[in-house]
Amino acid sequence: MARPSQALIDLTALVHNYRLAKGMAPDASTMAVIKANAYGHGAVAVARTLEPLAPAFGVACLEEGLLLREAGITKPLLLLDGFFSQEELVVAAENTLWLMIENRRQLQWLLSAKPGKPVTVWLKVDTGMHRLGAPLDQAASLYKTLRQSPNVAGDIVLATHFACADELENDFTRVQINRMKALATELRAPLSMANSPALLGWPQAVSDWNRPGYMLYGSSPFATSHPHADKLMPVMTFQSQVISLRTVPAGETVGYGATWRAEKTSLIATVPVGYGDGYPRNAPSGTPVMVNGQRARLAGRVSMDLISVDVTDIHGVAIGSAVELWGKNLPVNEVALAANTIGYELLTRMPSRLRRVYVGDGRLTSDV
Ligand SMILES: *Cc1c(COP(=O)(O)O)cnc(C)c1O
Fold first, then answer.
1. Could you report the per-residue pLDDT of 225-246, keeping only the tens digit for each?
2. Does the pTM exceed 0.85?
3. 171 CB burial (10 A radius; 0-12, 13-18, 19+)
């Protein structure tokens, strides 16, 4: 039998979450953001599942876009982080990749390029995040120059990105929205602002194009309960099995560094999952792990291939008992909190070593 650790990817939940995102703004266009291997879920499988529903996909860069083209995905792909040379621009044009432009260097490349056909361009505007985007006071001039170029196809969407949309009490999102709406009105341009938290929590941020990512994978972008976000269904269940069980006498320790000590005679289950599979090494003792359908607690340090779990108070544990590291029964956000990070990071860094198994949406496939 194969090592019993895998990420089960529920494509029916993915479709449910996309529909929920779309339902937040039924008259707008809802791009599905699938950068970073669809936040660890497998970009090709995710794109194939959502292609009948989504008008376009967001990826980080040219390489991610070309992987999807090679897999036969034909919908437009927006390069969210832009492009970094004039050669990339020509390749992007050939492959119907949409370009995010944010600076004059990219503008010059575009104006002086000889693409085989005009390219679709979005203009990124910096409304306060100060990471990417043309400065607010230069955006109008860049926009007008782009609009006059024969290398640019059709409408140019104005895009911006929020710094604090997951904090529903933080007024900075309103400041960013107002800055962007003033510009879009001046230029009479289509607009794109909302990521997942904005789409769920800031109705004023909904515009012509929305760009949800994280919510599609079924976790809330908020730290606390939220009426819309709570309807999301986790897509990934990271699961394994108990492969060894031992009784550890009081006073003995478990794992590297001997950091966990049994306060009483304890039952310790060993699970073949470690940081080499994407389980965070900085998850401390006490981090929840589901064993045999019940909440148990991590005991001692996470190793590369293995963890130990204190199952002293868990009923019916045997070799072969089911383990869930996160997923349908244990939110990835909760494990992330214990490990001092966010669910986005845990999902995105899942390594290729961990098998992905796809279920739901009328198909049953293994790795794509
Ligand atoms: C990643 C990304 C998104 C999606 O953000 P989520 O919080 O995952 O919904 C949207 N827009 C841009 C520009 C991004 O880089």
1. 999 999 999 999 999 999 999 9
2. yes
3. exposed
